[in-house]
Specification:
- The chain has 123 residues and is mainly beta.
- Helix content is 0%, strand content 48%.
- A hairpin with a 6-residue loop joins strand 4 and strand 5.
- The protein is globular, with a radius of gyration of 13 Å.
- The mean pLDDT is 94.
Amino acid sequence: QVQLVESGGGLVQAGGSLRLSCAASVRAVSMYGMGWFRQAPGKEREFVAAISWRGGRTTYADSVKGRFSISRDNVKNTGYLQMNSLKVEDTAVYYCGSRSGGDDTDRYSYDYWGQGTQVTVSS
């Protein structure tokens, strides 16, 4: 059973930065693609960023391009989302997911999810 655990969320002022982490319970996940999604109250879960299992390919939502950076450390079985220049509209619960195939921007491609971590950006 794969478990993903996110951490690093919190309250930050607009313009600030946060770094989210996603720790996987098993090494096999290092062979999977990883993605970050977010869900604001009353909205559907939306794609934020994804990275291939070797880290050679990254994909970003237009809304976060140039501000967010996704990375991973397969030795530590951990993925990261560096978020800079945060905006109020980035406020949401952030989830990491792991997938063995499919479209990396499609939430239904992901096999495993973490429990989420709250990010709140104040004005």
